[in-house]
Structures are given as C-alpha cells and as structure tokens.
Design a protein that fits this description.
The protein is mainly β. It has helices at about 1-20, 45-50, 130-140; strands at about 25-45, 65-80, 85, 90-100, 115, 120-125, 145, 150, 160-165, 170-195, 205-225, 240-255.
C-alpha cells in the first residue's frame, strides 16, 4: 500500500514538474501564511557593487551605506504554478537594495496603506525543500538547496535560527529580539527583484512580490556566518548587526526568466 502511494505521488509530481518546464518562462508562486523575519543590515556599497552586475544601480542611503536584506521565511505552504503545493516551505532569500522609480501602488483589500515599491538584486534564494528546488530549477529559476533551515520558538521576544548549507555543517545563524506592538500594522508591500546567472550571466530573471503584510513588531538582529558560507564569502564580514521586523505575510510572486523566452 505504501509503495503504491509513493508511486502515485511521484507520478503526479512528475506531471506537475513537466508542466512547469513546458508552460513557458513566466512562473508564479503563492506564499500562504508565512512567518517572516525581515532583517536589514547596512553594508559597504563598494563591496555590494562587486556582487551586482552592470546595469543595476545600488541604492546608497543618506548614511553612505547600502542595504543587505535577509528574509527568513517559514510558510505553511507555497503553491507553484497554481498546481504544485509544497508544505511546509522554508526559504532564506538575500538581496541588495537597488535604486528604482518612486512608486506607491494601491493597497490590497484588508490593508490600510501601501508601502513604497522597493527594488532589489537577488544574491541567494535558499530553500530546504528538495521538491521545490527541483521545480524551480526546471522552470529556469535559480535557487540553492540547503540541508536545513531551522527556527526556534519565540521566547521572551527572542528568536534564533540557523541555515545549515551542506553536509559539512557550513552555516549561518541569527538571534533576533523584537518588541511586539499592541496591534499589527496591516500594509501592502511590493518588491521588484532581479538576478543574472548562468554561464556569462546569460540568464536574467525579474520578479514582483506583492504581499498582504501584518507587521507585528520591530527590534534588532545579530547575524553570524561561517567564513566559507554563501554569505561569508561575499566579504561583508562574519558578524553583522541590523534591524528586524516580525511580519506575517501572504504573497503572490510572478517571475519572468528572460533568456529562456528569447
């Protein structure tokens, strides 16, 4: 019985993955009931510039620093291409802020306002689901599979987490302390993100994330990374101090992989 169930599951997974490959270069994902730690770190813009291809302008804040954004996301489920559910879904995207046109879109139903649209260059998109990583890869979207993404429960306003990248135990981890507000702030958030990858950066992707977000509180975060981890090799240091927000989100993501369409 168990063997038959596994065969049936694999069959439907195969159909779903084939659909992802043949249905073109535009992909979509729904992120459902996600708990997010949104962490911003000020970093040296000269180092950030080394990791962003020509054609993308890094945003420099008034303090002369660039922003490195780490999003630790733990979702009840994600739905790829409206047909392939993955649950639970844990992700760890790392982005650098870019300059972009000033824009504030309309607020989504159930939110009080829209935040200004922001623009980002994607350095990493790590996930610990093998199925999701394979599906994204077959759709031409660049992701990195990691061994595990682990979150502790929140105690006394503090939460810890760690991303173990490989079997050698290379990792990075964070300790976040936030003061929760008496009531959440319900807003709409929109982020454009871009990435170039592949041989000679021949593949370009661009995506738009639109979220109904409940900001629950804010605080500080400390990030410690192994020197040979994916973040450590970027050159920003092995210990970073930043600010954090605790957020609950439901998002729609639309991604276009340009080179596959040409």
């Amino acid at each position: 019985m168990l063997k038959r169930t596994i065969v049936i599951i694999c069959y439907f997974m195969s159909i779903a993955l084939i659909f992802l490959v043949v249905s073109g270069c535009s992909s979509s994902m729904k992120m459902v009931n996600c708990k997010e730690t949104l962490a911003e770190f000020y970093v040296d813009p000269m180092i950030a510039r080394k990791h962003v291809p020509t054609g993308h302008d890094i945003k420099v804040r008034p303090n002369g620093r660039a922003v490195l954004l780490l999003l630790e996301q733990d979702c009840e489920r994600c739905i790829l291409k409206q047909i392939l559910p993955v649950h639970p879904m844990r992700m760890s995207p790392l982005w650098i802020e870019l300059d972009g046109p000033a824009e504030i879109g309309p607020p989504l139903y159930g939110t009080s306002e829209s935040l200004p649209t922001s623009y980002w260059y994607s350095l990493l998109h790590q996930m610990d689901s093998t199925i999701a990583h394979l599906a994204f890869s077959l759709a031409g979207i660049d992701t990195q599979h990691v061994t595990s993404i682990i979150y502790s429960g929140r105690e006394d306003g503090r939460q810890k987490g760690v991303v173990v990248e490989n079997s050698n135990g290379v990792k990075y981890g964070w300790t976040e302390e936030s003061q929760l507000w008496p009531a959440p702030k319900l807003v709409t958030g929109r982020r454009w993100f871009f990435r170039e990858y592949g041989e000679h950066m021949g593949t370009r992707s661009r995506g738009l994330v639109t979220c109904r977000a409940a900001f629950l509180g804010e605080g500080k975060i400390e990030l410690k990374v192994d020197a040979d981890s994916s973040i450590g090799v970027l050159g920003f240091g092995t210990e970073l101090q930043g600010t954090s927000n605790v957020v609950n989100i439901n998002c729609d993501v639309n991604i276009n992989v340009q080179s596959k369409c040409q």
